[in-house]
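Chapter review: from sequence to fold.
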Amino acid sequence: MQKKFVALRFAVLMAISMVAIVSGGSRQTVNEASVFSVHVPRVWDDADMADVELPLADPIATPKHISAEYYYRIPVRPIYKSYPVYALGREPQGYQEWLSQQEPETLLDPWKIKDAGDLIRAGEIVFDAPIFYNAVVKPPLIKDPTWYENTGVLVAKDGTLPYFKYVIREKGRVEIGTVSCGMCHTRLMADGTVIKGAQGNFPFDRAAIFNAAQSLPPERVRLLQRSLFGAPWVKPDPQAGLDQIPVAEIAQWHAAIPPGVLARQGSSVHSPAQIPDLIGVKERMYLDHSGLVRHRSVVDMMRYSALNQGADDLASYGGFIPGARDFRTLPREGAIAMNSSMRSRFISTPCGRRPIQTSLMVLPFAAKASSSNRGVEAATRPRSTPITG
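The C-alpha cell string follows.
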C-alpha cells in the first residue's frame, strides 16, 4: 500500500541547478585542452538541514527533517529514455506497436559528459525525467475524449502533450512517466508553442482528481487529502469532518482549480498556490511559493530538489509525518523506492570513479526551481496557510 500511496502523491515541482567547475574550479571557456570536472557538494548535512527552512509561527510545527543516515539509504532511481505522448487523434500510425518493441534504456552516462554543454543537455533530460509512472495520468486516459473535456488540456503544434512522456522500463510495457519538473513548469501557448521553465499550465488538479475518482476507493482519496494538506497542530483542525465529505464533493474542489495553480503538498485545496515561473530563480534568496526555504547556494537548491520531491513528506511537523502510513512512523527506506528522487539523483559509473550529481545540472533558460521570493512574510505562517506553495 505504501508503494501505491507514494506513487499517487501529488508531489510536484523538482528543483534543479547547475555548477560547472572547469580547470580546478575557475570559470573558463571550455576547449579541447580544458579538464572538465564537477564538484559534488554533500547535500544532506544534518546541521545545514536544521536551518534550511525558516521557522513557522508555531515552532512546534517547524519541520524536523530526516537524518543524513536515513537519507543516504534511500534507493537511487535510474532515468529511462522517454518518448513523446501524442494527443487523441494525433498519434502516428503504428506508434504504440513501435513503442512496445523498444528495449529499456537508461540515460546520463557520466563518462559521456565532457563539457559544460553536455552538462546543460543532461540538465534538460533531468528536467523532463518523470519520477512516477501511470500516476495522475494513465495511458487509457489519453484515448478518452471525456478526459480532454474535463481537464481542458492543451495540445502542442506537433500534436504532443509535452507535460509528460512514455517510458519503457520493461520491454512490451508502455507507461506514462509523470511528475517531472517539466510537468508543472512547461507552458503551452495558445498557438501551440512550448516554453520550458515558464509558469506551467497543465491542469494538474483536474487531471489528478479525474484519475483518482475513477481508480481509487473513497478512503484512499481522503487519505491523500490528509497527507497533502494535513496540519493537525492548527486548532480547530482544518480537515475536521473530512471522513464525512463525499468524494464527489472533493472532486469538485480540485476540478475548480485552473491551470497554473496547484493544490500541492502543504497548501490547501481551498487556497491553492500559484505555480511560479523559473526564469531568474538563480537570483532569488528564498525558494518555494511560501518563501520558506533558504537559497544561500547551489547546495540549498539541491536540498530543495529533494525536499520538494517528497523528502518534506518524511519530515516531522510536531510529530505529524505526512508521508507515513499512520502519519507518525517513518517507513523503511526500501519502502519508498518508488519516490527515490527524494535523494538528489546520483549517477556513477560501474567502477564508481566519476560521480556526478544531476541536481547540479540546469537548463539556462529554466533554472528549475519551484520558487518565488515574494511573500517572505510567509515565514511566520503555518504550513497549511494559503500562501504556502
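Two observations follow directly from the output. DSSP finds twelve helices and 14 strands in the chain. Residues 1-34, 337-389 have pLDDT under 50 and may be disordered.
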